[in-house]
Amino acid sequence: MRERFLEIALANPVVATIVDRAPKLGLQEWYLTAGGLFQTVWNHIDGRDLGAGIKDYDLFYFDADDLSYDAEDRVIRSAAELFADVDADVEVRNEARVHLWYEQHFGIPGVPFTSCRDAIDHFASTTCCFGITKSADGTVDVYAPHGYDDLFDMIVRPNPVLAPREVYEAKAARWRREWPALTVEPWPETLT
């Protein structure tokens, strides 16, 4: 399934361009992740344009050496220049900084992540937990901690390790409007 996932994801020209160019940012650790990947697969399954309904493309990187906004902003500006010709919103974030603003944005305390993979593990839905990276030598790596079955079966499942119920339910509702064939699993009542 890994190869099928990679083939479909990289058939989306936005995904392919980001994965191809991102090593030029010179980041130690980065992943293209979340909606730009799993929604590309849903579009493929539905026979739609691969970029349909995708709000943005999340490019995570991890740099714990400088947690300042200025350092992150420099990377964001470099990425904006690198992807200026890409017809999509490429959202770049230093995952080492997320805990500094998470509570203000989501209403619950964040946790300091230890890597991009750790950040991916904390998405609101297991369906979001995908990442693709490419090393300087051209080797492509896929991170899929929950496997591919739910993705290809179009099942949205909660991942209540960090995000609040409201975030999961809002995202799932938006996805369901865009991809009506989705099966959305409810938030566990024991965590309400």
Walk me through what this model shows.
The structure is a single chain. The protein has 192 residues and is an alpha/beta fold. It has eight helices and seven strands. It has a five-stranded mixed beta sheet. Strands 6-7 form a two-stranded parallel ribbon. The termini are far apart.
Contiguous low-pLDDT stretches (5 residues minimum) are none
What is the ordering of alpha helices and beta strands?
Answer: HHEHEHEHHEEHEHE
The secondary structure category is alpha/beta
Q: Tell me the helix content.
A: 40-55%
Computed CA radius of gyration, to the nearest angstrom: 16 Å
Q: Tell me what portion of residues adopts beta-strand conformation.
A: 5-15%
Features:
two-stranded parallel sheet; 192 residues; five-stranded mixed beta sheet; 7 strands; alpha/beta
